Structure formats: C-alpha cells, structure tokens
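Reviewers of the previous submission asked for a worked example of the structure-prediction workflow described in the proposal, so we include one complete record here. The input consisted solely of the amino acid sequence. No template or homolog information was supplied to the procedure at any stage.
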Amino acid sequence: MLTLTSVEMNAWIAGLLWPLSRILGLIAAAPLFGNASVPVRAKLALGILLAIVIAPLVPAVPAADPTSWAGLLILTKEMIIGLAMGFAMRIVFAAIEYAGEVSSQTMGLGFAMFFDPSTRGRSSAISQFMALVATMAFLAVNGHLILLEALAESFITMPITDTPFSSNTALELVRWGGRIFSAGLQIAMPIIAALLITQVALGILTRAAPQLNIFGIGFPITLGVGFLTLSLVLPYLGAPIVNLFNQGIEVSRSLPRASNPQPAAAGAQPPVRPVVPAPG
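From that input alone, the workflow returned the following structure tokens.
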C-alpha cells in the first residue's frame, strides 16, 4: 500500500508551486503573454503547463513547508523574480512606444489619442502603430520562445533558495529602465531630424514671405513629411529593434543572478544562450 508522509506531500507541492510562481510572474508582466486581451484562464493554463514541464528539471528546492512563513517568503521571492524578468522585456516595448509618442508629438498628431487595450491608457496613433510593428517583429524572430527559454534557464543559473534578495536586482532594473528614453529617442531620431529641418525651412519661408499663412500650410506639410519619413525609415528599423530585443533578453537572464549572487547548483551548467537573429 502506498503511503505518503506530510513531508513528502509538502515537497511535491513546493516542487510545483514555487516554479509556478516564477512562471506566472513572467507571464503576467512580459509583453505578448501579459497582454490584457489574453484571458486570465489562458495565462493560468499556460503557466501550469510550463510548470509541469519545467518542474522535473529544477534543482532541489529548500525543505520548507509551503504554508509556513519561510515558504510564503520563497513564493513571494519567486513571483518577484518572474515579474522582474517580464518587466525587463516590457521596457523594450515601452521604449519603442515612446519613440512613436515622440514622433507623433513632433508631427503634430498629439491630439490623435486612442485607447490602448494593452496598457488600459491613452496613446497616440503612431505609438500604437510602432507597438504593433514591435509585436510582429518579436513574433517573427521567435522572441517569445527565447524568453521562455531564458525563464527555464533561470532555474539553473539561480535555483530556488530561501536566501533574501540582493539589492542588485532593483538597481539593475532601474538602470535598464533608462533605456526607455535613450533607445526611444534613438529610434525616433530620423523623424525628429527630418521634422526639425522642415520647421526651420518653414520658419525661413515665413520670414521671406510674411503674408504667407504659415498656419494653413505648416500642419499638412509637417504631417506629410512625418509620414513620408516614417515610411522611409520603417524598413531600416529591423536591426535596432532586434538589437533591443537581444539586450532585453540578456537583462532578463541577468536579473535572477543579480537577485542571488550564490553560484548555481553543483554540476549544473546553463544551456547555450540563444541570440535573436538579425533580419535578413
């Protein structure tokens, strides 16, 4: 007759519950997986499926009761690690959306605001367009699969432990958050430069012909130059966006190690890091 002790039951529950908390944290915060249009049941089902697949490969977990304070602290820690990994990748999409926001404001489309279902807020039309382009590029280079592979690798590079957090995680995430503005401005720089030249030309034209109604022709000219520049620049945005994806995935890999500087389990070697391929 098969008999199970409470210690064995707790070990089985903890072996599935703690990896599940990290997986659900990433699914809740990562782009594409954490989109508000994805049903909660689908996210939960995906998380449970991934936990069933990954849990047998996870190194030995601490011998702690999942219902105790120590178990709850481990559960919270794993959830925060998953959220941090997903949020690191979310910053990449935020940088691309910020590029669209800056371009829209420069073009004069700041009044064209729409409801964004992914963020449940209002964003410009160009920003939503750039977000859709980034999503298609993310799927085209299998970034969602590489992100899940980085999640599975994190259980080897940073096993589940009961040690407290290190302050390096928050510091790394804050530093990476600065890429929203730097990368966003770099992506939007061609449109900003073209519109700046257009504004200077309109200013010279106004000084040369004061009787010209600059307010009547300035807006359509600026709008047309903005759309023309966007259409010309769009084919060349593949390499910068893919490079940004690579940086986001590398930061997602490094955050679990920063949260706990202890070495990985003995004999465990992380798999080879995949790199998002550049567009052909």
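The longest helix spans residues 69-107. We consider this example representative of the routine output the project will generate in years two and three.
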